[in-house]
Design goal:
heterodimer; A: 118 residues; B: 207 residues; Rossmann fold; seven-stranded mixed sheet; 7 strands; binds guanosine-5'-triphosphate; binds magnesium ion
């Protein structure tokens, strides 16, 4: 499977992200779930419009990257623009609790039940 | 009603072309499947995933060129690694992502970028190329990420699990099992073993 940016080259990626390379929201985890809060508007950058269409329901950052055919790094920057302008909201993974740095027993129980039911 | 603009064909095992999650899902968890080339990582993810595995890339820009140095944009060298992933919706509010990723040293930046906060990892090993997983095991031990080791059975079966354990110099506390990554129940059993192992570690550490 060839990702589209291989053909497009680094210049194209530089344009997609408007030259930003250090401005990605550091809270954006690979599995942060993104939800669109508005429909695309005419004249919007096409990658932004595609993300809004994809995220009609919650979708992870890595799924968005796979569907757009863009590296995760680039998608993080695109998403940061959309978060900053309120067009999408982000549901971040819960941080580890001090009492249970690995995972809480409740979460593990939930995963086990779902795996057994697979 | 707007149409989706995804370039991907309808690649998923179920659902619409892009399979959005139910709106109530707010919590995502992750587990990584690591190992050498061709050991069965993608196969294991596919066996249990509710979507056909998707592929994407992460890259790391080599240090040494300032990010605000416009002249440096084309001069920067990047290491790129492809990884794939699948998904299991756990319940109305949570989803588990499974990542298949190479475990060799030069790909390890993926952990910092993508797998920080993972519940744990499955290390897949092929006894014909045992050394491919040494780095991953060392690294997981060093960073304190819970893991299990699964010998993906390609039919060679020349070694007992205790021989594999000895060859890997594996901590006796780390579960070691045999699996067939192509088989859903077998892959599922490995994941259950991992989560039960994590649970025992959590309960042992409990305040
Ligand atoms: N006999 C046997 N073959 C397997 C098993 N698991 C995977 N295979 C086959 O081995 C090959 C490699 O499996 P993949 O799942 O692509 O391995 P991978 O680790 O994702 O490989 P890379 O991503 O290329 O590093 C495929 O042809 C699989 O069908 C297994 O348990 N038994
Ligand atoms: Mg693979």
């Amino acid at each position: 499977m060839s990702l589209s940016h291989r053909r497009e080259g680094p210049d194209r990626l530089y344009v997609i992200t408007s030259g930003r390379s250090g401005g990605a929201d550091q809270n954006l985890d690979a599995v942060t779930l993104i939800v669109a809060e508005s429909a695309p508007t005419p004249g919007m950058q096409s990658e932004h419009a595609r993300i809004l269409n994809l995220c009609a329901g919650p979708l992870s950052v890595v799924e968005i990257a796979a569907h757009l055919g863009l590296p995760v790094t680039v998608v993080r920057i695109l998403l940061t623009d959309l978060i900053d302008t309120g067009r999408v909201t982000a549901r971040h993974p819960a941080p580890a609790s001090p009492a249970y740095p690995l995972a809480s027993p409740e979460v593990l129980e939930k995963v086990l039940v779902a795996l057994h039911n697979l | 009603m707007h149409s989706t603009t995804s370039e991907s064909p309808a690649t998923e095992q179920t659902g619409s072309p892009t399979s959005p999650l139910p709106d109530s899902v707010a919590q995502a968890l992750k587990i990584a499947v690591v190992g050498g080339f061709g050991v069965g990582k993608t196969t294991m993810v596919r066996s249990v995933s509710e979507i056909r595995p998707l592929t994407t890339e992460e890259n790391m820009t080599q240090a040494g060129v300032g990010v605000d140095d416009l002249q440096g944009v084309e001069a920067k060298t990047t290491t790129t690694v492809a990884f794939d992933f699948g998904r299991i919706t756990l319940d109305a509010t949570s989803v588990l992502y499974l990542f298949g990723a190479p475990g060799q040293e030069r790909f390890w930046f993926l952990w910092d970028r993508l797998f920080t906060g993972a519940l744990g990892a499955v290390v897949l090993v092929d006894t014909r190329r045992l050394a491919d997983c040494f780095y991953a095991i060392d690294r997981l031990e060093a960073q304190g990420t819970p893991f299990v080791v699964a010998h993906n059975d390609f039919g060679e079966a020349e070694y007992s699990l205790s021989e594999v354990r000895a060859a890997l110099d594996l901590d006796p506390a780390v579960p070691l099992t045999r699996c067939d990554a192509r088989d859903r129940d077998s892959a599922k059993r490995v994941l259950i073993e991992l989560v039960e192992h994590i649970r025992s570690l959590v309960l042992a550490q409990a305040p």
